[in-house]
Each structure stands twice: as C-alpha cells, then as structure tokens.
Amino acid sequence: MKETIPVQKILIAVLIILVTGSLLTWLLLSRNRGELLAEVVIQGETVMKIPLNHNENSVIWDLQDKYHVPVHLETDHGRIRFVDVDCPDHICENTGWLSLEYQSAVCMPNRTVVTVYPQK
Fold first, then answer.
1. What contacts 36, CB < 8 A, 6 or more positions away?
2. Do the beta carbons of residue 106 and residue 92 sit within 8 Å?
3. Tell me: the pLDDT tens digits for 54-93?
4. Cα atoms in the 13 Å half-sphere on the side-chain side of 108
5. Euclidean distance between CA atoms 2 and 18, whole angstroms
6. What is the arrangement of strands in the sheet containing 45-51, beginning at the earlier edge strand?
7. CA 114 distance to own-chain centroid
8. Are 101 and 92 in contact (CB under 8 A)?
9. 82 Cα distance to chain centroid
10. Average pLDDT, whole number, for the chain?
11. CA-to-CA separations, 33 to 21, 28, 98, in angstroms, rounded
12. Nearest residue to 107 via CA among 86, 78, 77
C-alpha cells in the first residue's frame, strides 16, 4: 500500500518556503536602499571617496595623473568597476560592477582597492 503525505504537511512546507523566500528577498532588496560610497585606496592610503547614487551617466575616473597608477574606474547608475587597467592579468576588470554594500575589487599589481560602503 502506498503511503500518502497529509495535505496539512504539504501546506506547512509550502508556507515555510514562501515565508523564507519573502524574508530573503526583503533583506536583499533593503540592503541597497541607502546612499552608497566607493572608497578608493592606493598603497594603503584612502585617496578618493566617490558617492555612487549621484552618477546617472557613466563617468571615467583616471587615477594616472593624480595618483600615478595606471588605473581607470567607471561609475554608472550607483555602481563602480575597474576599466582600462594596465596590469598583466586584468582580474580586477573581470570582477565587474560593484553595487552592494561591502563589495570590493582589488588590482594587486597597482595596489589599488575599491570598496563600496553605506554612506553615513
């Protein structure tokens, strides 16, 4: 004889899945509601803090002239990334866009770190 699962157990399992999914969605979406700030650190020294939520158009930041590192950063619609970097492996460029709190990307050859923080 085949044993059947009571409807009550199925409903409870579905309810738990729905509540868990709703909470996770709410947490992920609510994390990025505030203003974000990208901190640029070169050789252990913070050199720039870029507000991300104010850039509606793409902006390229050239770090060569002022900080003497062959790095370019791009900001666009609340996010930032490494672009056009002079290093052998381009891992930093492959990291892609940073748009969530506490995401980071590092260009090791140029000792440059970008981290996104909530703006206080």
1. 51, 52, 53, 78, 99, 101, 116, 117, 118, 119
2. yes
3. 667 899 999 999 999 999 999 998 899 999 999 888 999 9
4. 5
5. 28
6. 45-51, 36-42, 112-118, 104-107
7. 10
8. no
9. 12
10. 87
11. 19, 10, 15
12. 86
3-class secondary-structure state, position 66: helix
32 contact partners, CB below 8 Å, separation of at least 6: 78, 99, 100, 101
Say which amino acid occupies 83. V
In this prediction the pTM is 0.70
Whether the pLDDT of residue 30 is over 90: the answer is no
pLDDT at 55: 62
How far, in Å, CA of 118 to CA of 26, rounded? 18
